[in-house]
Amino acid sequence: MTVKLKTKLKIIAVQVIVFCHAPLALAEDSVEFNTDVLDAADRSHVDLSRFATDNYIAPGDYLLDITINGKAIGQSKIHYDATADGKSSRACITQDLLDKLALKDEIRAKVTEVYQNCYSIDSIPGAKVTNTAGALNLAVPQAWMKYNDPDWTPPERWDSGIAGVIFDYSVTGQLTHRFKGEGDYDSLSGYGQTGFNVGGWRMRADYQANYDNKEHKSNFTWNQFYAYRPLPTMAAKLTLGEIYLNSRVFDTVRFTGINLESDERMLPPSLQGYAPEIHGVARTNAKVTVSQSGRVIYETTVAAGPFNIQDLRNAIRGTLDVRVEEQDGSVSTFQVTTANIPYLTRPGYVRYNVAGGAPSRYNHRIKGPGFVAGDFSWGISNAWSVYGGLMTAGKAYTAITAGIGRDLNVFGALSFDATESWSEQPDENRIWGTSYKLSYAKTFDEFDSSITFAGYRFSERDFRTLSQYLDERYGGYDNLGREKEMYTITGSKTFWADDPRMATTLFLTYTHQNYWNRGSQDRYGMSVGRSFNIGNVRGITANLSAYRSEYNGKNDDSIAFSLSIPVGDSKWAGLDIQTNNSKVSPMASYTDNSDYNNLWRVRAGTNQDGRASFDGYYMHRSQLAEINTTASYQYDDYIAVSGTLRGGLTATRHGAALHNSGATADTARMMVDTSGIGGVPLNRGMARTNSFGIAVVPDIVSYNSFDTRVDVDAMDSNIEASKAINTSVLTEGAIGYQVFGMSKGNKLMATLRLADHSTPPFGAEVYNKDGVSVAMVLEEGKAWLAGVNPNETLKVNWGGKNQCEITMPATITDSSTILLPCR
């Protein structure tokens, strides 16, 4: 039997002893071990004292994972004190950790403070503190805690992160070469956010830029300068600076001032709202830009065919302008109304939004009268909610809203409100008008269908929103027209949901909008998708999407049909047929999504004029950025390429790292420190530590539990991780920070010798400079060292403290056992 194999067997023997403990003499919480079962020549020279007492931890400070009632809540530095008899130790619960228990006030009063910032929860009935490897486990009966929602982490356990600097960007470029006619066209655009975090405050600046060679112009604009901070105890958010009013009652307006609003993302999931989606069809590879009041809030490149944008921020309200720029130079636009579901609030709860300031333009100058605004919703009972609001700029402008919401149980939810406005005209006459709104939503579980939103709104000729008033009074124009009537409906239905071979999903949307001072517009849309099997071919999918836009008597029709047939693992052959205003374009395609970080598709066929056509896209997810590229070719017409690059940089006192990013404003990010060891993959390859051992996992949903995971199976064989997962909940915009104990290096057998030529006792532990255990000492001082490096100094611990140190040689080989003096 080899030395290495015998060593591993003896380590297993120690583990068996620890778990079975073969007691000779029992105390209440301590145990002595029968060392006779060990295959050791000198059984008197054994130190298993740290296993002798239940949950014994040697006195000192430790960075431990914390769990509360079995749920991981992150890491914390814990100090262990020795008890009076010196035979056991006790964990000091800090005030910060005590707060995370979210105890009821009367139970919190029973907790005793042993000394400053050191508490004991022994006085809480049923409470228990235990230890496992690298973790402190707190168990408290749920009856003594404020919250009881297994799908939600209470505010006391949220992490506001650390101080740091961020820079996120999204850049889209397009090159088009025409074989004749208009010549070449190049464009470059981008948007993003930069800023820094200090404590709970997030300072931010949003920017956008574009360049167009056709018009020979370029510009760079700082859209907003603002600061905000979450207020978890109030379930609210405070914002200062240049703000876009985010109200459920009043339309969006840009102003400079202060805003305090309820943030329902801080509520349990069952009480939260929704985020808008955008559906459409691109005739070619296209750039899609979503803006609101001229501010770009989302931009990307999409492949030809139907697209569905689902990752918009759930804080967006109002009307969104969508621009689809095809690679052949044509442009189509439409609007999406992000009206919310009926405005209902849980019983006894009040949602509110209070703002004050003065309207401001994109040049950051104040233009318009100062105003104050406030709206609220109060849940009277399970069935009824009332809501309303007031916005006033004195004599210049005033609007008041009152509404009521009703939960109709099996019939859905309904709300109705009316808004009255008074506004001063340029001739100083005052006009007034009313706007009425009706909203309805219903999920039919028994029919596997839902009406996501249905609404109707009518505004009288003299009704004005604050933005309309400002445009007329100070801009001399009405940019978006004065809305007269709008109704919209979106819904979905799944047929044969119980049979995966037959399940078919239908999505419908319709919006009608007309104005007092311009023509009306309508947009109809539908999509239907189904998966089915033919013989031994399983997972065939078919999708049909159709959209029509009507404006000023003109129709713009788009229809897309796609059929995909599996030809391998996450690979498909397909047929795509698109029509635009009765012109048909058939294309055969091949898609390969087998590599999550490298997705691509190619298509070939004819365009709508019958000319040969080719296009393709490629998306690459790397640790540094996300890249989306597309290319199109149409015979005797043009060749075009485009791409979007998204990424970011995050820097703190612990280090800095480039990373990919969705460039959204309200997400958090996690900085991971792997003790200076690079190349450690995280979260299925989403990030990888750089040469300094730092990585950033981006786009973490705020106020939701998130697991940061080390991809152990994908690590290099010479890297050892002391743990593989950390769990945390980050507040909006936070930069989280987590440390994973790592060791990297050689593996070898060594014999440890003390100065008197004796050896450390059997069971002694060897630690590296980061406190990661790299070996346990066996008989005759032998130790199997894992993850050690040349010239590295290691500490040897027994008897509850560090006893000596060993230094690795300048050259390490795995061929034989080396002798290491322990001084």
From TrEMBL:
Keyword flag Hydrolase: no
Keyword Transmembrane included in the entry's annotation: yes
Membrane topology summary: Multi-pass membrane protein
BP terms from Gene Ontology: pilus assembly
Compartmental location: Cell outer membrane
Residue ranges of every copy of the PapC N-terminal domain listed in the record: 32-172
InterPro entries named in the record: Fimb_usher, Fimbrial_membr_usher_CS, FimD_plug_dom, PapC-like_C, PapC-like_C_sf, PapC_N, PapC_N_sf
PapC-like C-terminal domain sequence ranges: 750-807
GO-annotated cellular components: cell outer membrane
Record keywords: Cell outer membrane, Fimbrium biogenesis, Membrane, Signal, Transmembrane, Transmembrane beta strand, Transport
GO molecular function: fimbrial usher porin activity
Pfam families: PapC_C, PapC_N, Usher
Leader sequence segment: 1-27
Family to which the UniProt record says this protein belongs: Belongs to the fimbrial export usher family.
Protein name, entry field: Fimbria/pilus outer membrane usher protein
Source species: Tenebrionibacter intestinalis
Lineage of origin: Bacteria, Pseudomonadati, Pseudomonadota, Gammaproteobacteria, Enterobacterales
